[in-house]
Amino acid sequence: MTAEPSADSSGAAAAGPFDRSMADLGRWSVGTLVGLLWCAALLIGWRRVAGALNRPLEALVLLAVGGLVAAVAVALRIWWHRLPAESRTSRRDWLIMFLPSAAVLSLGAALSLRGTGTWALVVFWAMLVGEELWAWRPVVWRRLPGRRKPAPGSRPIRVDAVAKPSPHATLPGVIDGVPGDDVLQQLTRSQAADGSERLSGWLRTPFAAGQRTAIVHLAFCPQFAKAPELSVEKLDGPEIIRINQAVFSFGARLDLKLAAPAQEPLGVLLQFSARSESPAPPATARRGTR
């Protein structure tokens, strides 16, 4: 099935490159703020080492500088974490955490000159340390004993009586037509008179903007006696140039690759059928009587 083009789809296609451009602009803006923070730290640190910065700042000036540095560090971290997940990596996340912290502490040390008022230094360092504690709180909180999330399946599940029928109970069967866009999986398992079993249904695989490959896992529960024969057909979505299969008795893995990266978030609808022959009868059943 091929979806007809519409004004909504063309508008979404135009919004995809715009969103990526805004994400790139945000990433470069955060990098610029980090660079400016480090330039200020290096300049003031160099002047302190060279002896050009030997007179303490006035209390109000010191507090204004501390507030500005803390505000910049907070702003760039908030800005960074609001960027799309695909624009960030774990390495970049750690750099955004570590580099501003090093610059903030270096600035604080360089501006803490002998002769500065005690109360001004206390407030100045309270702003800097408070900002750093706020920035690092997710990392510290995750490492506290007993604060790790429980493993999937370890949490008890309460089963309540069904007050009304589930809306999924009215989903159409495999032979009745294509399921709606909100249906991610729809499976039907049947058994023939000869004992063979068939698992068939639909799989909808989402692709984010810019994504080209995806991995789909299909579970056979209960598992078949042996690896079944699996056939997969694409019914809706962009062109797919490759579908690799790895089939086992307990499930299958499908590796999908689009002909071109997705220009916008979309889904690929697959229809599959897994058929397993009837298991061989026990040896005692095949043994004849004399």
What does this structure look like?
With 290 residues, this protein is an alpha+beta fold. The protein has two domains: 20-143; 173-279, Immunoglobulin-like (Sandwich). 41% of the residues lie in helices and 21% in strands. The protein contains five helices and seven strands; from the N terminus they run H-H-H-H-E-E-E-E-E-E-E-H. The chain has helices spanning 7-50, 59-81, 90-111, 118-143, 283-286, and strands spanning 185-191, 197-207, 213-219, 229-236, 240-247, 251-258, 266-276. The strands form two sheets. The protein has a four-stranded antiparallel β-sheet, with no helix packed on it. Residues 1-16 and 148-176 have low confidence and may be disordered.
Percent of residues in helices comes to 40-55%
Q: From N to C, what is the helix and strand string? A: HHHHEEEEEEEH
Secondary structure category:
alpha+beta
- Gyration radius, rounded: 30 Å
Number of helices: 5
Uncertain runs are: 1-16, 148-176
Number of strands: 7
| Largest sheet entry | 4 strands, antiparallel
Number of domains: 2
Write the layout of secondary structure elements.
Elements (H helix, E strand, L loop, with lengths): L6 H44 L8 H23 L8 H22 L6 H26 L41 E7 L5 E11 L5 E7 L9 E8 L3 E8 L3 E8 L7 E11 L6 H4 L4
Antiparallel strand pairs: 1-2, 2-7, 3-6, 4-7, 5-6
Helix pairs in contact: 1-2, 1-3, 2-3, 2-4, 3-4
Which tags fit this structure?
single chain, 290 residues, alpha+beta, Immunoglobulin-like, 5 helices
Summarize the structure.
By secondary structure, the chain is α+β, with helices and mostly antiparallel strands. The chain is built from 5 helices and 7 strands. It has a 4-stranded antiparallel sheet, with no helix packed on it. The chain has a 3-stranded antiparallel sheet with strand order 3-6-5, with no helix packed on it.
